[in-house]
């Protein structure tokens, strides 16, 4: 029995979510043609694309509504800076905005009156985040948010790191994404890090790494140095992670790959096919059952 | 007419989709795709390779690999006993000539697999297509013992043989599917996987019946050598470079000042001349 469009879409959601970085439009277009029901799709796709964009920290360019302050700035779409109304908030620019996930357009940018201007700790973390970004993620984005999803009593700060490099002309796309949560009450720093790379010139090769970190910041008497300590720990952990991934590549080539299939047989020479094909011939032919 | 072009567009999009989604989940993705578009079933199953499945031949007591070319209904023919599992009455059997070649080739590729894969399982199937011979050579190797270094390799070679007197023309289509998981130094789950398909054509002399096995063997050995090299050097190497471009290991400010230093040095040296 043929599935309804909604049921088909339910199954296609995973395609969108698990699709490689930078190729969501391609995956969506494929799904659109395969499902072949644009009207229904248009009605139902919105929330799914929203989920994908938020999950991938989509970087949206926003412009200040007051044209005299004509500075453009990049805001991230994450679950941590989304208000109950569905709007997103960018603390650095002091702006809130809506987002059309289907057309990837920013709408209704307005100056928001939040108390965030008073959140000095966030501002200090953001200042450190900017330095860290410049040193290690040129072209990427790092944003610090007070976690809106959490209750007021246990305030938590979330550091969102995203660096996408899309190069479809050369058949590759990559994403580095991390979120680090710092709890000032417990001094715990927990991180989730993922990397996705797709290289598809005459093939389909994908790297997927996901890792989590559970750390603790040693409490310091000097609260003002805390943001620096947090970023030096993040930097140290991410550096070690990067070195370890490179170590894994070496192991992959030297061991994992060789254990699957050797480059050459142990004898270091290619197979003598004349020998192995004729060697068996006589024995085997006599064993052929008559059909 | 319109329906036809719509169907082929759908099919092209389905192929494009499968080339984008993670090769790690190819089986799940194909299952979901076919639920969405059951009309694409035959086309998708015959054009997209999936990891090889193993069956047991309880007549010969050996495992064998299955594909579309040894399938009849829901049963698969074992290259060892020539019987179908689950048992099938009057299942399609290869011609005497094809079966003879099949027996020789299976023994030869057993040796090939032992030497290159140090273990692993191979199965070869021959059949005749409108007078022409064709064959499928399947190889599978799985390493599951070390949780921090796991891997699986599937080779699928399909060869069409066109006999022209004492020469034969071999058309080979090879797909290699490779899955690896590594976790040295606690990087979490590092999953690097991929699938590549390549085609090639070769002509070679045929002096006796087993010449086909010799020619196919050499052809496949060369193709696997080339593809293994591509995967290791080009494909995996490329993802490593991309990874290292996503995060700069050294501080950008250090890199910049180093560059400045070099430039200064260079211009000083130049001025000296």
Characterise this structure:
Chain A: Belongs to the F-actin-capping protein alpha subunit family. Chain A: Keywords: Actin capping, Actin-binding. Chain A: Heterodimer of an alpha and a beta subunit. With 291 residues, chain A is of the alpha+beta class. Chain A has helices at residues 5-18, 24-35, 38-55, 120-136, 226-260, 273-287, and strands at 59-63, 72-76, 88-90, 95-100, 105-111, 141-146, 157-167, 172-183, 188-199, 203-216. Chain A is globular, with a radius of gyration of 26 Å. The two termini of chain A are 43 Å apart. In chain A, 34% of the residues are buried. Chain B is an alpha+beta fold. Chain B is elongated, with a radius of gyration of 24 Å. Strand 10 of chain A pairs antiparallel with strand 10 (189-205) of chain B, so a sheet runs across the interface.
CATH class of the largest domain in chain B: Alpha Beta
Estimated structural class of chain B: alpha+beta
Instruction: Please identify the top-level CATH class of the largest domain in chain A.
Output: Alpha Beta
Structural class of chain A: alpha+beta
Could you tell me how far the N terminus lies from the C terminus of chain A, measured between alpha carbons in angstroms? 43 Å
Number of strands of chain B: 10
Computed Rg of chain B = 24 Å
Largest interface: A-B, 92 and 93 residues
Coarse shape of chain B: elongated
Instruction: Note the main sheet of chain A.
Output: 5 strands, antiparallel
């Amino acid at each position: 029995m043929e599935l309804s469009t909604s049921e088909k879409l339910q199954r296609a959601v995973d395609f969108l979510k698990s699709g490689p970085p930078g190729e969501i439009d391609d995956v969506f277009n494929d799904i659109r043609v395969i499902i072949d029901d644009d009207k229904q799709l248009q009605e139902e796709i919105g929330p799914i694309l929203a989920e994908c964009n938020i999950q991938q920290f989509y970087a949206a360019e926003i412009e200040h509504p007051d044209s005299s302050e004509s500075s453009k700035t990049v805001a991230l779409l994450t679950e941590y800076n989304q208000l109950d109304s569905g709007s997103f908030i960018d603390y650095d620019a002091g702006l809130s905005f809506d987002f059309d996930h289907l057309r990837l357009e920013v709408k209704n940018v307005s100056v928001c009156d939040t108390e965030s201007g008073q959140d000095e700790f966030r501002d200090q973390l953001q200042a450190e985040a900017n330095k860290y970004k410049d040193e290690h993620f040129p072209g990427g984005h790092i944003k610090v948010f007070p976690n809106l999803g959490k209750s007021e009593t246990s305030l938590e700060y979330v550091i969102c790191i995203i660096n996408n490099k899309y190069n479809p002309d050369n058949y590759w796309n990559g994403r580095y994404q991390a979120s680090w949560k710092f709890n000032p009450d417990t001094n715990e720093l927990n991180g989730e890090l993922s990397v996705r790379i797709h290289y598809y010139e005459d093939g389909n090769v994908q790297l997927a790494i996901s890792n989590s970190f559970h750390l603790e910041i040693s409490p310091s008497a000097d609260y003002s140095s805390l943001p620096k300590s947090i970023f030096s720990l993040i930097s140290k952990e991410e550096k070690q992670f990067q070195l370890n991934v490179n170590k894994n590549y070496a192991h992959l080539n030297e061991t994992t790959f060789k254990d699957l299939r050797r480059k050459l047989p142990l004898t270091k020479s290619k197979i003598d096919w004349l020998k192995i094909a004729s060697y068996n011939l006589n024995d085997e032919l006599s064993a052929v059952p008559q059909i | 007419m319109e329906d036809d072009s719509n169907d082929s567009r759908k099919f092209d999009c389905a192929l494009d989709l499968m080339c984008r989604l993670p090769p790690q989940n190819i089986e799940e993705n194909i299952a979901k795709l076919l639920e969405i578009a059951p009309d694409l079933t035959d086309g998708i199953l015959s054009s997209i390779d999936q990891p090889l499945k193993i069956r047991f031949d309880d007549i010969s007591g050996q495992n064998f690999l299955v594909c579309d070319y040894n399938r009849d209904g829901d049963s698969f023919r074992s290259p060892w006993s020539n019987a179908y599992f689950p048992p099938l009455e009057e299942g399609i059997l290869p011609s005497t000539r094809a079966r003879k070649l099949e027996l020789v080739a299976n023994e030869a590729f057993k040796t090939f697999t032992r030497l290159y894969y140090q273990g692993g399982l191979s199965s070869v199937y021959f059949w005749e297509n409108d007078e022409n011979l064709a064959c499928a050579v399947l190889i599978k190797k799985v390493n599951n013992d070390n949780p921090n270094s796991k891997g699986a390799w599937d080779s699928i070679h399909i060869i069409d043989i066109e006999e022209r007197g004492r020469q034969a023309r071999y058309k080979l289509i090879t797909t290699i599917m490779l899955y690896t998981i590594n976790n040295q130094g606690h990087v979490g789950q590092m999953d690097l996987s991929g699938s590549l398909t390549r085609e090639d054509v070769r002509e070679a002399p045929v002096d006796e019946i087993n010449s086909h096995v010799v020619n196919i063997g050499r052809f496949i050995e060369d193709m696997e050598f080339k593809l293994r090299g591509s995967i290791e050097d080009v494909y995996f190497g490329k993802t490593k470079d991309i990874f290292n471009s996503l995060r700069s290991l050294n501080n950008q400010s250090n890199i910049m000042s180093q560059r400045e230093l070099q430039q200064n040095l260079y211009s000083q040296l130049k001025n000296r001349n």
